[in-house]
User: Fold these one by one.
Assistant:
Number 1:
Amino acid sequence: MITIKDKTFVPFLEPAKLEKRIIELADQLDKNYQDKNPLFIVVLKGAFLFAAELFKHIQIPCEVTFVRLSSYQNMESSGRVKQIIGLEEDVQDRHVVIVEDIVDTGLTMAQLTAQLSQKGAASVEIATLLHKPDALREDVNIRYLGFEIENRFVVGFGLDYEEQGRNLAGVFVLSEATEPERRTAQSDKATK
Ligand code: IMP
C-alpha cells in the first residue's frame, strides 16, 4: 500500500505484467506497420513511461513525437475542445498511432483522432495502456489496448494523482477504503 497526499493506493498491475503486455503490443505494431514508417504521437505527460517501454521493443523503422493536450479538469472530461500543443510534424498521408496512458470517457481520443484525420493522416489508430470501458462515452476504436480496467482511479507508470505517482514502476488503484472519494480524486486532481 502507498500513500499519495491524502489518498492510499494498493498494487494493481505489477511491472512485470505491464512489460509482458507492452511487448505483445510492440509485436502487433511491428507486424501491422512494417514498411509504413508510422508516426507515433505520444500524449504527455501520462504516456511517457508506457511509450518508453513500448519503443524499447518496437523494431520497425518509425518516428516518435510528443504532444501535450489541454488538461483533464473536471469530474468527467470538460467537454471543451482540446488543442494539440507541440505537434511539429506534418501528418499528411502519414500512418499515425496515438500513444495514450488511459482512455476514460474517450472524449480526448475522439477529439484527437478527429483533428489528426482533418490534418490528412492516412490512418489514425490508438494504442493505450489502460481503458475503462464503463466510463466510455464516445465511440472510440481502440486498436491496441494494454489492459481493460474497472472504472476506478489509478496512478503510477506515468499516471498521476495531483502530479504525484507518475514515477511508480507499477499501476496502483485507489484503495477500497477511500473509494467513495474516488470521483473527487479523479475530478480535479489528475492532469495530463
Ligand atoms: P478521457 O477524455 O475522459 O478519456 O480522459 C483521458 C485522460 O484522463 C487520461 O489521459 C488521463 O490523463 C486522465 N485520467 C482518466 N482516468 C484516470 C485515472 O484513473 N488516473 C489518472 N488519470 C486519469
Number 2:
Amino acid sequence: MGSDVRKNLIAGNWKMHATHLDAIQMVQKLSYRLDHGDYERVEVLVCPPFTSLRSVQTVIETDHLSIKLGAQNVNPNDQGAFTGEISPAMLAKLSVSYVIVGHSERRQLFGESDAFINQKMRSVFDAGMTPILCVGETEAERDEGSAMDRVGSQVAAGIAGLSDEELGRLVVAYEPIWAIGTGKTASADDADEMCGFVRSQVGAASSEAAERTRVLYGGSVNPGNIAGLMAKRDIDGGLVGGASLDPDQFASVVRYWM
Ligand code: 13P
C-alpha cells in the first residue's frame, strides 16, 4: 500500500545469473507481459550483472521500454588502480538509475563494512543515481531479539552524511538474511514492523524526508506472497531474487493486485 507520495518499486536482483544473451531475452519477455497501466502503478527495475548492462540498456532504449536499469554493486572511487572494479560514472553512462548497495551477500561474502557502504551511498548520489541500501539481521540476531539493533545501526551508518533531499530519494531494502533464498518469508506483519522501524531510523535524520523514502521488503518474495506484503503501510515494494529470473513470475509479482 505504501503512501501516495511514494511510488511502489518492484526490483529484480538477478545476482550472478544470466549471460548477456539470456538477459536480452529475459527483459524482452518481461516487457511483453507488462503494459502501460502496470508502469503507472509500479516502477519496474531489473538489476542484471555488469556484463549485461549494456545489452539491457540497448533493449530498453530501442524498444522504448519503461523498465528501469539497475546495478548490483559499485566501487565508490571515481577511477584508478582498482583492478576488477566498476565506478559510479561507468554505470551512470549506461543509463543505470539505481545501484544496490550493501547487499547481505556482499557484507557476508566480501567483507563489506558499514563505512565502505556509506562511501558507496555518497558516490552513487554524486553520480546522479539512486542507491538501494540493503539491511537485515541474521536468524541468530532475530532469535536473540537484537534484529532492531542490527538493522538500526546498518541504516544509521549507511545514510550518515546524506542531505534531506537525498534521504527523500533513497530506497532502503529490508532483507532478513534468514529469508533470502530459503523460501522462508517474514510474515507481512513482521516485515511491515521492520520496514516501519527502518523508516523511523531515516526519520531520526529527517522526519519529512522519511515520508518519501521508499522501503522495500526482500527475502523469498514470490507471486503468492507479494499482495499481502504490498497491503502494508510501510512496505513500498519488493527486492526480488529468485522469482525475478523467470519473466512470468516476475511479471506476476509486479502485477501483485491481479
Ligand atoms: P530471494 O528472493 O531469492 O530470496 O533473494 C532475495 C534477495 O536477496 C534480493 O536481493
